[in-house]
Design a protein that fits this description.
The protein is mostly helical. It has one domain. It has six helices and no strands. The longest helix is centred in the C-terminal third of the chain and has 43 residues. It is elongated.
């Protein structure tokens, strides 16, 4: 079943509520946070807005975590990835392992936030997560994915130029 699209006034209400919390806790800019993590999908009708925003952010980051996990431990990887993974150098694996560990630590911290709610702790975590993702994880992940794509393209060129018959 398709999700019902949000009304423009829901997004405006979310921005309004976020702005109040942003002033109180010096949160990242709404637009930047939304561009990275699609927080506009959050329903502003809640008593725990920062918790819901944090969960939305972690949901997005968890997708990257699972993808990296498949690259580092490809036993259950889709078939198309096995060919690509043959060309990953040890430096790439090390970089991906570092990203994987960073994201894993962030995910573990969210468990504590789920168990002991504190609006201030949620705000601090969102700031930390935004800073860590924006300043290290994002750029390293982009570099790794581009390298994975480029190495695969190079492999395809070699196969096309060789004689197989």
């Amino acid at each position: 079943m398709a999700k019902k699209s949000k009304e423009p006034n829901d997004i405006e209400k979310l921005k309004e509520e976020y702005e109040k919390l942003s002033k109180k806790y010096s949160l990242p800019d709404y637009k930047k946070l939304n561009e990275l993590f699609d927080i506009e999908e959050v329903n502003p009708e809640t008593d725990f807005l920062l918790r819901i925003i944090r969960r939305k952010i972690i949901e997005k980051i968890s997708n990257y975590f699972r993808f990296i996990e498949i690259i580092l431990n490809p036993s259950m990887a889709p078939l198309f990835l096995h060919k690509k993974l043959k060309n990953i150098h040890s430096e790439e694996r090390a970089l991906l392992s570092r990203i994987y560990e960073q994201i894993g630590n962030l995910e573990a911290e969210t468990i504590l936030l789920d168990l002991e709610y504190s609006e201030k702790a949620e705000a601090e975590f969102i700031k930390k997560l935004f800073h860590t993702f924006n300043n290290t994880i994002k750029n390293d992940l982009i570099k790794s994915i581009k390298n994975l794509i480029n190495e695969t393209n190079g492999e395809n060129r070699e196969i096309k130029g060789s004689y197989l018959g």
